[in-house]
Specification:
Distance between the termini: 46 Å
Number of domains: 1
CATH class: Mainly Alpha
Structural class: mainly alpha
Strand order of the largest sheet: 1-4
Number of helices: 12
Strand content: under 5%
C-alpha cells in the first residue's frame, strides 16, 4: 500500500485535531516572540507543569473542573513568575542572554518535575472519556479531536478580538511592530509584556489539557518533542507575523498527524526526520517562511 493510499478520512481527522493543538502552541510562542523578539524555549515545560497538575488532581479524586482549574492556576502562576523574575530583569540585555535564560528555566522546571515525580511520571485519567470515538459518517473521530478543533477556533477568535478591539491589544500590536517607538508614545512596556506572557500561559494551559487527553502518561519531558516540532512550524510559517506563525504550526501539526496515522508502525520512528527534512527544503525555497509575502518574505543575505 502506498503512502497516498494510506491517507484516509480517519488520518485527515487526526491531522486536523493535532494541527489545531499545534496552532494554539504556535500562537502562544508567537505572542511572546512578537513583543519581546524572544523564542521561549520553556513553553513546553509550562505545558508539562499543567499536565502534572491534571494528573495529581485526578490521582487525588478531584472533580474534572477542579483539575482543570488547578492546571490553569499552575501554568499562569509559573508564567507570571517567569515574566517577573526572568524576562523583566533581563529585558535590557541582549537577545542571546534572554534566550539562554529560557533554556535555563526549561531545564530547571524539568529537573524539578524529575525530582518531584520521578522519571516514570504519572498517569492522568480524569479526562479519559474524551479519547472515546464518535461516529461521523464512516469515520470514528475521537471526542478530543472535535474538542481541540472547536477550542482552537474559539481561542483564536477571542485572541483576534483582544488584539483588534481593545486598547491592550492595540498596544500589543504596536509593541510587536516597533517596541521602541511604542514606548515613546506612551505604551506601558511592563503591562504589554506581562499581558502577552499571561495570554501565552493561558494558551499553554489549554494545550496541556488537550495533550494530556491524547497522551495520559505525563513525564518530565512531556510536550518537549511537540514544542520542538511547533517551533519548526513557526519558523516554517514565518515568525514575523502571528497569523503566519499560527498557520505554520497548524500545517506541521496536520502533516504530523496525517503521516503518523498513515505510516506503518515500523516506520513511525522516522516521522520527525521526514518533518524536519521537509522544513529544510521549504526554507531553502522560501527563507522568510512558507506563508510570508512581500516584505515579510524578504531575508537579508550576506
Amino acid at each position: 500500500m502506498t503512502l497516498v493510499a494510506a491517507i484516509t478520512w480517519q488520518a485527515i481527522a487526526d491531522g486536523l485535531g493535532l494541527g489545531a493543538i499545534y496552532a494554539l502552541m504556535a500562537v502562544g510562542i508567537g505572542l511572546v516572540f512578537g513583543v519581546l523578539r524572544l523564542v521561549n524555549f520553556a513553553y513546553g515545560q509550562l505545558v508539562m507543569a499543567g499536565a502534572f497538575a491534571l494528573a495529581v488532581a485526578g490521582e487525588r479524586g478531584w472533580p474534572q473542573w477542579a483539575g482543570i482549574l488547578l492546571c490553569f492556576g499552575v501554568v499562569l502562576t509559573l508564567s507570571f513568575l517567569m515574566e517577573r523574575l526572568v524576562f523583566r530583569p533581563l529585558r535590557a540585555h541582549s537577545p542571546a542572554v534572554m534566550l539562554v535564560a529560557t533554556f535555563a528555566v526549561a531545564f530547571l522546571l524539568q529537573s524539578i518535575a524529575l525530582l518531584w515525580f520521578g522519571p516514570l511520571g504519572k498517569i492522568a485519567t480524569s479526562l479519559a472519556e474524551l479519547n472515546q470515538p464518535v461516529r461521523i459518517g464512516d469515520v470514528d473521530v475521537r471526542k478530543i479531536t472535535v474538542v481541540a478543533i472547536v477550542t482552537a477556533v474559539a481561542c483564536l477568535a477571542a485572541l483576534l478580538l483582544l488584539l483588534g478591539r481593545t486598547s491592550l491589544g492595540l498596544h500589543m500590536r504596536a509593541a510587536a511592530m516597533d517596541f521602541g517607538t511604542a514606548r515613546l508614545i506612551g505604551v506601558d512596556a511592563n503591562r504589554v509584556i506581562g499581558a502577552a506572557v499571561l495570554v501565552s500561559g493561558l494558551l499553554a494551559g489549554v494545550v496541556a489539557v488537550m495533550l494530556t487527553v491524547q497522551t495520559p502518561l505525563v513525564t518530565p519531558d512531556f510536550a518537549l518533542r511537540d514544542t520542538i516540532v511547533v517551533l519548526a512550524g513557526v519558523v516554517l510559517g514565518g515568525m514575523n507575523r502571528l497569523l503566519t506563525a499560527t498557520l505554520g504550526g497548524f500545517a506541521i501539526g496536520f502533516v504530523s498527524g496525517v503521516l503518523g496515522y498513515a505510516l506503518p508502525t515500523d516506520q513511525s520512528q522516522y516521522l520527525p526526520s521526514f518533518l524536519f527534512v521537509a522544513v529544510i527544503l521549504v526554507l531553502l525555497v522560501r527563507p522568510g517562511g512558507l506563508f510570508a509575502r512581500g516584505r515579510d518574505a524578504a531575508v537579508q543575505r550576506v
